[in-house]
Amino acid sequence: MENDDAILTLVRRVLERDRFTVEGTHTSSEAIQLLKTVAYDLLILDLKLTGDSGEDVMDFLEEAQPHTLRRVIVMTASPRQLSCEFLERVCKILAKPFDIDELILLARECVQDESPACVQS
């Protein structure tokens, strides 16, 4: 989930080139609707959005799909502001601006032994 079209397009292209199938949304409500019907191998969430929040998706996952939290990469420009408790809930943190190679590495690490079928960003 990413509200910046340029970043969403970049993430999509990079991960598709690495054989991930990617679905992108701009809002937490769109992401939650998809999560109700699709089991994703990986979720990439931007926490700080204009008028919306990746925290809403995290709250949904915590209640409905707690096992999925360990497949979440959080993208944020402020990684130092995240609490230790928050960091323990997710797979990885990707600081913005991010390096493309780091994005690929983190995505691979989060899905490890599973074939990357579908990614939500």
Short description:
This protein is of the alpha/beta class. It is 41% helix and 18% strand.
Report the helical percentage: 40-55%
SSE pattern: HEHEEEHEHEHE
The structural class is alpha/beta
The biggest beta sheet is recorded as: 5 strands, parallel
Question: How would the global form be characterised?
Answer: globular
Give the termini distance in whole angstroms: 4 Å
Kindly state the number of beta strands: 7
- What would you report as the Rg, rounded to the nearest angstrom? 13 Å
Q: Any idea how many domains?
A: 1
What do we call the CATH homologous superfamily?
A: Response regulator
The CATH architecture is 3-Layer(aba) Sandwich
Describe the fold and architecture.
- With 121 residues, this protein is α/β, with parallel strands linked by helices.
- It has a single domain, classed as Rossmann fold (3-Layer(aba) Sandwich), CATH 3.40.50.2300.
- 41% of the residues lie in helices and 18% in strands.
- The strands form 2 sheets. Strands 1-7-2-5-6 form a 5-stranded parallel β-sheet. Strands 3-4 form a two-stranded antiparallel ribbon.
